[in-house]
Write a structure and sequence with these properties.
Blueprint: H1 2-18, H2 24-38, H3 43-77, H4 80-92, H5 97-107, H6 114-128, H7 136-154, H8 159-167, H9 172-202, H10 205-208, H11 215-224, H12 244-266, H13 272-277, H14 280-298, H15 301-335, H16 337-345, H17 353-371, H18 374-385, H19 396-407, H20 416-425, H21 429-455
Helix pairs in contact: 1-2, 2-3, 2-15, 3-8, 3-14, 3-15, 4-5, 4-6, 5-7, 5-9, 6-7, 6-11, 6-20, 7-8, 7-9, 7-21, 8-18, 8-19, 9-12, 9-21, 12-14, 15-18, 17-18, 17-19, 17-21, 18-19, 19-21, 20-21
Amino acid sequence: MTALHTAIAILVVVLLILVPKVEPVIALVIGSLYLGIATGLGFEGTIDTIVDGFGDIMAEVGLLIGFGVLLGSLLNSMGALQKLVEKLMRVLGPGKLPYALAGALSAVFPSIYVDVQLVLAAPLAKSAAPRMGRYGLPMMGGALSAGILVGYVFVVPGLGTLAVAGLLHVPLSTMLVYGFVLGPLAALLTTFLYGRLLRLGLWNADTDEVPDNEDVRDELADVTGAVMAPEDEQPGARRPLPPLYLSLLPIVVPLLLIATGAIADAAGVESDLLAFLGNPAFALFAGLVGAYALAKRVLTNERVDQAVTEGFHSTGQILLVTGVGGSLGAVIGKTGLDKVLSGIFSADAGMSTVVTILLVWLVAALLHLAIGSIGVAAIAAAGIIAPIMGDLAVPPAVLALAIGSGSLFALQVNSNFFWMFQPLLGVTTRGALKALTFVTAMASVVSLVLVIAVSFVV
């Protein structure tokens, strides 16, 4: 009966999000309440478990998410992403631009919220497309899709990455090492394969593209709070904005600190100073302080305050969804379902590592198809897997990567990202299905192959 009640709870969560459009936070709490009471935890026991689960995951990733979102908001306010894309256009030319865009978005900018990345990068990508020939627009759209969303689920400090790593208790330094290699590689391979398919006739400009609409960018910028002005017209700038290398330091330095800590730990070096500097919370805080100081130098106080306020606004929603995802996982852990699932997933049941990875990937993929949110699907999948993780013959980092890979699968019409992507890139619904839905399905499968490959060497 435990498995049945868990299935009902997950179905309730999915239906509440899909049909009456209930907020994921409320839906996840309702599902957790039902599961706890239905499986005999009692009213008080259920509430206590929900609260404890929320607190546990906040202790793991609360500060990391908060610092990461604020850092991304400040970088956005200084136009870091626009400057990078414009620099890539000038240096590389149109032929290599899709690969550079996919690599940069997946490796450098996961700290910026995905909707904001889209609004910032899409007009730049669209303006470069005519110089790339017949398939310029879909190629740039595919690179944009792969880069932004792969970075979100694989690369530190992507919010999906932080949440899943916290739920599965994977050290952030470990996620950084694996994700920083696997994420950009998956984005680049996906972009390459998509380009080959375009040449085989996948794209039809007559049915997949729409006439240009210059007003769309401004409308969607208002929705996301993104800064769309060119570098020399940035609102709120009181001095010339910093050069590109300086704008990127607040995100590069934390990554280097975390990587240094991971390398020192792997090499067996015992140093309190290295452990302190390589601690993810300190590293992201150092990046946040650097970004804040830089923003205070080049922007007006009002614009800095606006950027911080926007960051706080986003942080609250993300922390709540992540926290109640931890609550659902805690309730599942108390119901005894972990014993049922561990019997299915464990190596003792004759299940190989590859099959385990495939099942974990499938759980996340199905949740994403149903819910329409990569982040919520990843968090829900991690909440389901976390209680049985100790019984699996697969390292937690590989499980986290498998969840990220599955949650990418086929972003489509039940996602607000889909409906932002379509007008910003100037494509029809059919075109968005090809340049976004199909590309994320490809990225999911490509990254799954890479995750399986990683499992053989971990």
